[in-house]
Amino acid sequence: MISWYFYQKELIILQLSKKIMSYSKLIYHIIIRTKNSAATLTEDKENLLYKFIYGYTENKKYTLYRIGGMPNHIHLLVGLPPTIAVSSFVHDLKGCATNFIQNHQIDFPLFQGWSRSYCALSYSVHEKEKIIKYIKGQKTHHQHHNLQNELEELLDEFEIAYDNKFFLKD
């Protein structure tokens, strides 16, 4: 009878532990360049890629708050669960997006791949709308800033060290 009581007590503890949750809200601004920063994602076809990426994130149960960019890079504001490393997300996304683009080569005839590097910055939920607005305004922003200036400003703002010798090299 005592063992049954302990068994029952352990069972109850086990059932309670299944209901315990961890709470997180991890929001990342991710910038992915095309290989050699080549302008291969044309404005008239970029929405094909963006819709694919939206579907990819939806299928994986990630939250894509915004996507946008320029012919040589894309910006994503994405919420990821704590079980997914940012590097794994970017690696998998680049692979799937490359397959999509290769299957739509007529729409992206100059695409040669993605750069090896990427930029990932974390933001709080309170900054989400500011970053959404920033990504929406990429076309206007890049009338006055090139990709290198944009990345240097972001890296400096986040106090991320970089070496110009290797910066934007593929």
Keywords for this entry:
4 strands; 6 helices; globular; disordered N terminus; alpha+beta; Alpha-Beta Plaits; four-stranded antiparallel β-sheet; 170 residues
CATH level-4 homologous superfamily: Transposase IS200-like
Q: Strand portion, in percent?
A: 15-25%
Give the helix/strand class.
alpha+beta
N-to-C SSE series?
HEHEEHEHHH
Tally the structural domains. Answer: 1
Estimate the mean pLDDT confidence: 89
> Which blocks of ≥5 consecutive residues have pLDDT under 50?
1-7
Secondary-structure blueprint of this entry?
Elements: H1 2-19, E1 26-34, H2 46-60, E2 63-70, E3 73-80, H3 86-103, E4 114-123, H4 128-136, H5 138-141, H6 147-157
Antiparallel strand pairs: 1-3, 1-4, 2-3
Helix pairs in contact: 2-3
Give a summary of the structure in a few sentences.
The protein is an alpha+beta fold. 44% of the residues lie in helices and 21% in strands.
Polypeptide structure, described:
The protein has 6 helices and 4 strands. The protein has helices at 2-19, 46-60, 86-103, 128-136, 138-141, 147-157, and strands at residues 26-34, 63-70, 73-80, 114-123. Helix 2 (46-60) packs across helix 3. The longest helix is centred in the first third of the chain and has 18 residues, at 2-19. The radius of gyration is 21 Å and the shape is globular.
